[in-house]
């Protein structure tokens, strides 16, 4: 429910962005900032209908004025169940909001959910309804919004809509909410500073020199697995926007993903032993061969993309030996004369943004018609056995065992989804046929080992949703705008590696002992970060994402235990 329906005299017209479709393109990261009310903008007074009790949080006015000065639209998105409970009236709520604006300045929209938990509405956070409504009111789309809030419901609502989220904890914020948040800031001014930093980092203002510059042949590098290459796609397009020719150096594990990226003119495949998780010894002859191959590219410059824990310097040395005149990379280590552009990025930035910021520092930004999102070359037709679009893809495996779904749980999820009326397609690589057969059983279509990565991308493109761990198909889903139920093992930060700018529900224990270990194999017996997930939570996650089956039979009780996403169990009841 919008407040302008309650309070017509205070309705404001949204700035024209050329419509929601137009707002979805262009290189700007954010158009709007959405803010929770109680505990985020003002001190949390339960069920407050008295404007005299409104107290802004420290630094709120100055922080909001910074956002306004930067041209960002502002909206408040707030649960107010006190309306449903009769604890205050609409007139009292209007008076409170007038007081908030008197102290903090005007907001472009107020979006209010007046319902209680039992009303089953689609707007009460953690449902994404308020975020969708705010984006429409502001003339943009959720993926170009960032929501700042103080509890898990706020973060869950942002994620389920495909928006970014920043948690500003208060004394009532639970530790598990902090652990699960995509990004955490100590207070509202710090959250605003981070929003503005992220916005500037990927834009033309960061680029070295005046505006976009033309370039000849540019060698771009991402020598990791398929998922790593996929999340570098926006940065590759930024380089391609002004380069005459883009050559991508990748390893064997990323070759198939490289072939899916728009903007790549040529691929050079070569294994880099200092990148591979199980590296071979460095072979001098192999390194000489690589230097010769790089020299043959005749690149005018190179942009070396790496993950946050990797060093670009070994390859930078080879690039110098190959005669590359200008090299750009992110490096915490002192690079000496190996780098011309040494870029720094704070911890916790989403990997696609991290790569985009390096491209911008090197002088490359996305074209005016492009936007910060994962994209792939046009998909081929999916295998005919998957049937009509709208099925649910369940991808249980991963190249890193720690990030896959426990097989027994995956099989239970397949049965529960099928029993609830979903059509299920189980996917996996050639080495996962036994796993996918076990998971699919006699209830789902088994595509294990039967598609290339391009075929998997086509299968994902036709899905209504994807249920997957932290592995490549999550990024395929993000590239096609397909909602994700993310069975996310916290071995790496969710804010860096979770599905980017696509509606997502995260499941799993964010506080598990494997947190931030980067372990490839589960270091804790029993895979506890995911083994506690119940199939009912996956079903509830799909409903939160608006993905419903054509038939809704009651699933077996054994598969419906524990059935609410983590975001539904967080936050104070008065909101």
Word description of this protein:
The protein has 22 helices and 17 strands. With 575 residues, the chain is α/β, with parallel strands linked by helices. The strands form three sheets. It has a six-stranded parallel β-sheet, with helices on both faces. Strands 14-13-12-15-16-17 form a six-stranded parallel β-sheet, with helices on both faces. The protein has a five-stranded parallel β-sheet with strand order 3-2-1-4-5, sandwiched between helices. It is globular and about 75 Å long. The two termini are 14 Å apart.
Provide a quick synopsis of the model:
This protein has helices at 3-6, 19-23, 60-69, 81-84, 90-104, 129-137, 152-161, 175-180, 188-201, 226-231, 233-240, 255-258, 284-297, 313-321, 351-361, 407-419, 433-440, 453-461, 472-480, 494-497, 528-531, 535-544; strands at residues 32-35, 73-79, 109-113, 145-149, 164-167, 215-221, 243-250, 266-269, 301-304, 326-330, 341-343, 392-395, 424-426, 445-446, 465-468, 484-487, 504-507.
Alpha plus pi helix count: 22
* Proportion in β-strands: 5-15%
Helix content: 25-40%
How would you state the average pLDDT, rounded?
A: 90
Which consecutive residue ranges, at least 5 long each, have pLDDT under 50? 1-23, 206-210, 553-573
By secondary-structure content and strand pairing, the structural class works out as alpha/beta
Give the number of DSSP strands. Answer: 17
Distance between the termini: 14 Å
- The general outline is globular
Q: What about the largest sheet? A: 6 strands, parallel
- Major sheet strand order: 8-7-6-9-10-11
Radius of gyration: 24 Å
């Amino acid at each position: 429910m919008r407040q302008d329906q309650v309070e017509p005299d205070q309705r404001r017209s949204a700035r024209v962005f050329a419509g929601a479709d137009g707002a979805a393109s262009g290189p700007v990261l954010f158009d709007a900032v959405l803010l929770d009310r109680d505990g985020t903008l003002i001190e949390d007074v339960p069920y407050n209908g008295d404007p005299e009790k409104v107290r802004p949080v420290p630094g709120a006015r100055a922080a909001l004025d910074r956002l306004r000065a930067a041209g960002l639209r502002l909206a408040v998105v707030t649960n107010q169940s006190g309306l449903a409970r009769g604890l205050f009236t609409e007139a009292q709520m209007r008076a409170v909001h007038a007081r908030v604006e008197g102290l903090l300045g005007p907001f472009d929209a107020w979006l209010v959910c007046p319902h209680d938990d039992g009303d089953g509405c689609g707007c009460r956070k953690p449902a994404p309804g308020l975020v969708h409504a705010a984006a429409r009111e502001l003339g943009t789309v959720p993926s170009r919004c960032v929501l700042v809030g103080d509890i898990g419901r706020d973060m869950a609502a942002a994620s389920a809509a495909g928006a970014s989220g920043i948690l500003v904890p208060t004394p009532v914020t639970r530790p598990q909410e902090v652990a699960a948040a995509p990004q955490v800031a100590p207070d509202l001014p710090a959250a605003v500073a981070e929003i503005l930093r992220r916005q500037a980092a990927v834009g033309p203002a960061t680029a070295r020199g005046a505006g976009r510059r033309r370039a000849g042949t540019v060698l771009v590098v991402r020598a990791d697995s398929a998922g790593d290459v996929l999340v570098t796609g926006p940065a590759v397009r930024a380089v391609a926007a002004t380069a005459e020719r883009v050559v991508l150096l990748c390893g064997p594990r990323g070759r198939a993903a490289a072939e899916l990226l728009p903007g790549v003119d040529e691929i050079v495949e070569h294994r880099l032993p200092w990148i591979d998780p199980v590296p071979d010894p460095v072979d001098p002859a192999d390194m000489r061969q690589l230097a010769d191959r790089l020299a043959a590219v005749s690149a005018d410059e190179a942009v070396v993309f790496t993950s946050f824990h990797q060093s670009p310097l070994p390859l930078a040395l080879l690039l110098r030996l190959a005669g590359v005149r200008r090299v750009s990379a992110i490096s915490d280590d002192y690079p000496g004369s190996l780098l011309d552009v040494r870029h720094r990025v704070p911890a916790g930035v989403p990997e696609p943004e991290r790569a985009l910021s390096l491209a911008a520092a090197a002088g490359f930004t996305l074209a005016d018609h492009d936007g910060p999102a994962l994209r792939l070359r046009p998909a081929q037709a999916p295998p005919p056995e998957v049937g009509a679009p709208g099925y649910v893809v369940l991808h249980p495996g991963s190249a890193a065992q720690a990030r896959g779904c426990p097989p027994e749980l995956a099989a239970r999820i397949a049965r529960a989804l099928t029993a609830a009326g979903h059509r299920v397609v189980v996917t996996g690589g050639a080495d996962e046929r036994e796993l996918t057969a076990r998971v699919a059983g006699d209830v789902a279509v088994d595509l294990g080992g039967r598609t290339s990565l391009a075929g998997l991308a086509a299968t994902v493109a036709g899905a209504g949703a994807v249920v997957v761990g932290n592995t490549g198909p999550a990024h395929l889903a993000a590239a096609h705008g397909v909602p994700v139920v993310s069975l996310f093992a916290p071995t790496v930060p969710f804010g860096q590696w979770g599905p980017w700018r696509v509606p997502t529900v995260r499941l799993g224990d964010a506080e598990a002992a494997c947190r931030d270990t980067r372990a490839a194999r589960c270091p804790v017996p029993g895979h506890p970060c995911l083994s506690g997930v119940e199939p009912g939570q996956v079903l509830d996650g799909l409903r939160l994402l608006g993905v419903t089956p054509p038939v809704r039979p009651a699933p077996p009780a054994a598969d419906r235990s524990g059935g609410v996403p983590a975001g539904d169990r967080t936050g104070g009841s008065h909101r």
